[in-house]
Design a protein that fits this description.
The complex is a heterodimer of chains A (423) and B (429). The radius of gyration of chain A is 23 Å and the shape is globular. In chain A, the strands form three sheets. Chain A has a six-stranded mixed β-sheet, sandwiched between helices. Chain A has a five-stranded mixed β-sheet with strand order 9-13-10-12-11, sandwiched between helices. By secondary structure, chain A is of the alpha+beta class. In chain A, helix 1 crosses helix 4, helix 10 packs antiparallel against helix 11 and helix 12 packs antiparallel against helix 14. In chain B, the strands form three sheets. A seven-stranded mixed β-sheet of chain B has the order 1-2-3-9-4-8-7, with helices on both faces. In chain B, a hairpin with a 2-residue loop joins strand 13 and strand 14. The chains are: A alpha+beta (423), B alpha+beta (429). The interface between A and B is large, with 66 and 68 residues.
Amino acid sequence: MDIIKINDNISLRYIRMDKLKTTSIAVFIHRPLKKDEASYNALLPLVLKSGTELCPDRAAVARYLDNLYGATMGATTIKCGEDHVIYFDAETISDRYAPEGEPLTADLLKLLMSALFAPKTENGAFDEKTVELEKKNAIDKIAAFMNDKRQYAADRCRQETARGTDFAISRLGDADIIKNITSRSLYDYYRRIMTSSVIDIYICGDTDIKAAEAAVKEYTDGLSFTAADIPKTEIITRKYGELHEVTEEMDVAQGKLAIGFITNVKPTDADYPALIVMNSVFGAGAHSKLFNNVREKLSLAYYAGSQLERYKGMIIVNAGIEFKNFQKAYDETLVQLEEIKKGNISEHEFTSSIVAIVNNYRSFLDDQRALATTSLMNRVAGRDKTIDEMIESIEKVTPEDVTAVANKLQLDTSYFLTGKGAE
Amino acid sequence: MELDFRKSEKTGEEMYSGTHSSGLKIYIVPKPEYSGSYAIFGTNYGSVESDFVVPGESEVTHVPDGIAHYLEHKMFDQPDGSNVFDKFAKYGGSANAFTSFNVTAYLFSATSNFEENLATLLDYVQSPYYTDETVQKEQGIIGQEIRMYDDNPGWQLFFNYIGCLYNSHPVKKEIAGTVESISHITPEYLYKCYTTFYNLSNMALVIVGNVDVDSAMKVIEEGIKKNEPFTEPIGRVHPDEAEHIAKQRSEKKMAVAAPMFMLGWKDNDVNKSGAELLKKNLEITILLKMLFGKGSKIYKKLYDAGLINNTFSTDYTMQPDYGFTSLDGESNDPEQVFEAILDAVDKVKEKGLSEDEFELAKKVAWGKYIRSHNDIENYAVTFLQLQFMGIDYFDYYDVYKTVAFEDVKRRFDEHFRRENAALSVIRPL
């Protein structure tokens, strides 16, 4: 990866790769996850991609992209711990596939820079109509969060486990706060953060990086920046206490069980790779204890698995079950964790976990988006490693390491999404 | 066996292909610069086949709904009691399977030991083993899979929509069946379906990624078990489907935040395959972009009026014997969206389509094709599914270049008829 420093805050990172037929550009703007700001962060990318000096409205943006053989430009936010990242993601077929020799990547970068640094404005504010429409989109998105029950339950459990910390704040923002945002307050916020946040621009594919650098500078040279840092996240530490129990009712046919554990391991700790392997043994795939016991042995669920939230130090288990099987599935989950803690890990479970993780890391090398986001996430975690280094660290893990790290796990939260009036 | 070799000038892609004496069709796309490799072994058999005539028999066999999907789950049990996932895991392969309306497929991705993984794939899919006990065990797991879909509003919206379009075509049935239908599944039914639809002449193998063609072929030749290819087609018994739609509206209440809608048109220009079907697909895809894409007048009008939000999307689903367009999203007033879209289509009928917009939408289709080569998994799955429709995705350009504005105009008149349009809605409780 070539890193070109545009200024103290902005860097251009080029991952050269010509085996794919596309070139992708990702922009990450790092903001601290805070209650008021989160709503502005959620709304801002929707407005920025809806009108720029280059393409004044959504239809013009769409036609511009269509003309680049259906190039894409999306904008959203992601949560890397308590770093609320505004994420623009654009992709085009590479110039060598342009039937008429068009400079597709340069044209796409131009649109993206225009969206970021030259949005459509009127009298020192964003276009009011656009802001109102996108407020509706942002609020609809918050409401729609409940539609996917599986994700909803896992996310609610994550929130409950991280209770009392900023991590519990939704990346989608808060509907009441969004309602009160105006085209001017959003523009003021935009002006402030664009010159006082770390901004990473990744280009992955095949392009003239010198020309790309010039294109970025064209938009940023006139601005003055205040130096910024990437927001940092502390893992949860909590004294062993009573189980935090949450039950929610909804009109559903299937119950969703989620269990939150605190890992007490930071992504920069020496035993972090062992934690990744431990999570895989526990519940990340068809080789895992949860899959083979909760699903295959007891036939309680179609899916039963675990996910690691690295920044905040949590593991969240989730499974879709009959309401009446809550206790059975809950107990079996704890039994399986106990097995790992006792060192009862089969060779198959262990090697399959290593192999699955390594396989997954290697597959990132064929995926431009995965390369950019992996690099970003490592950066945020303060663990700047290449894919090869990540693989190496996993291959060094032993079953004893897994057992040791499992013993740091602390049961914290039990979450159950159940039916209305279900027993 | 000898393989044919092709190289595309437009994309730079290479492909080896051929038909084995067992009847199995084989396609290999080597990409030596990739880290990963992917193989998919599939049968042209999915949820729509509940009634069929086995080649050589005269009676129709009737089996319970959801059996293709059930069989897919049960393929992972092996005669020697071994676990298929264990074998893949040993070689670093990540295995999976899926069942759709017309295809059941078994697949793996790997970044090492490709040959060993491929041998495992070929072996287990050719080793059926069903007992009362193992079949019984799956009822609970699939029962929970069905429950999961019961709570999935997007899935319910989709099946209610197809239920509006089709009177009797089995595409309207749930892929996994119902808790009731799967309770009738027995080992005997599973073996009957297996010996019919998993005959290698009804199957194909697609391999994409970092593979050596010669060593892959050696594994394939050794891995293919004895198989007598069918000399006549499997009788797929589907009731005759009338042209009219079953009903115009469907509505259901679920735990969702805002009303969700899916609307679109039933395709009656069916019973096509191969290049003809691909051409129809291109025409309709181009039309969806021209009429309802983010740059279109209709989209802008609905969006600016707050009637749709950025969840709105369009799609075309096709098989040789059925097809439909679908437009879906969230709206506080789905009825108004439906009416506005039908009216807007009528207006286009009066004023005509724009040739400039046609050229722009056609460009987008080309970009999408180029991009589809990036992801080895998506490419292999797309290739397999199209292969079962008689479409050669490698030769896409040959069909693409023939799509003219006149074709699209004709297709517009043929497809977007008010009487073939339906609306499915999921409303909050």
